[in-house]
Amino acid sequence: MGPDHGDRRHLEFEEVALVHMQRIYNAALRLTRNKPEAEDLFQETYLRAYRFFHQFRQGTDCRAWLFAILRNLFFTRVRQAPSVAVDFDEDRVYREAKHGSLLPQNPEIHLVHRLVGEDIQQAILALPPKLRLVVVLADLEGCSYREIAEICQCPIGTVMSRLYRGRQALRTALRDYAKSEKTSKEDG
After folding, report:
1. What is the pLDDT of residue 2?
2. Distances (CA, A) of 6 to 13, 88, 145, 156
3. Stretch 29-45: mean pLDDT, rounded?
4. Distances (CA, A) of 72 to 17, 55, 64, 99
5. Can you tell me the distance from the alpha carbon of 170 to that of 187, in angstroms, rounded to the nearest whole number?
6. How far apart are the C-alpha atoms of 120 and 144, rounded to whole Å?
7. Distance, CA of 184 to CA of 181 (rounded, Å)
């Protein structure tokens, strides 16, 4: 375990972990909902990954390993932040999504929704963290059910259920948004 071993591990980290930086940062941004928190979460994820890279099993999926670190750090932060109200009741969110929009009714947010793509981003951000994580990993990062189950440390059936509920909530939120846009254009 001389200096050559450390240099090899450093190079290996660069080759297998750093190639996923943009995807990890994008996921952190979608999970945290703000840039400074995302940057902190991203940096902490890579710091942990580098510190514990000796535990990474060569030949396994480094992207999934990094997402798992990101997930654990994110949920640790959510649990430790008493001032942030986070809804972990997926069933309630799913039921409410059938009856009303998940999008905030704030006029400033409404203006932001008019920008292309922002309506989808805001609908994703409105999802509870557990649903948001699965939707981001599946639909935006292209992870398989198996990879998501590994990252989230839950059965594949739970992944499928959360993904279904998340997509249903998005569908409802976006349908409500489209209706409100159509009404406002007809009135104007």
Report:
1. 52
2. 10, 42, 34, 37
3. 91
4. 17, 16, 12, 32
5. 26
6. 22
7. 5
Instruction: Please report the domains of the chain, with CATH numbers, ordered by start residue.
Output: 3-80 (1.10.1740.10), 90-187 (1.10.10.10)
pLDDT of 169: 92
Rounded-to-integer distance, Cα 98 and Cα 103, Å: 13
Angstrom distance (rounded) from CA 89 to CA 135: 16
- What whole-number percentage of the chain has pLDDT above 70? 71
For the chain, the farthest-separated pair of C-alpha atoms sits apart, in whole angstroms, at 73
> DSSP label at 165?
H
Contact indicator for 93, 128 with CB cutoff of 8 Å:
yes
Q: Residue 121's pLDDT band (boundaries 50, 70, 90)? A: confident
Structure tokens at 168: 């249903």
> To 10 degrees, the CA torsion angle through 132, 135, 141, 147?
100
Q: Which residues of 84-108 are buried (b: 16+ CB within 10 A; e: fewer)?
A: eeeeeebeebbeebeeebbbeeeee
pTM as predicted: 0.65
> Could you please report the per-residue DSSP string of 64-95?
HHHHHHHHHHHHHHHHH-TTS-----HHHHHH
Residue 108 confidence (pLDDT)? 40
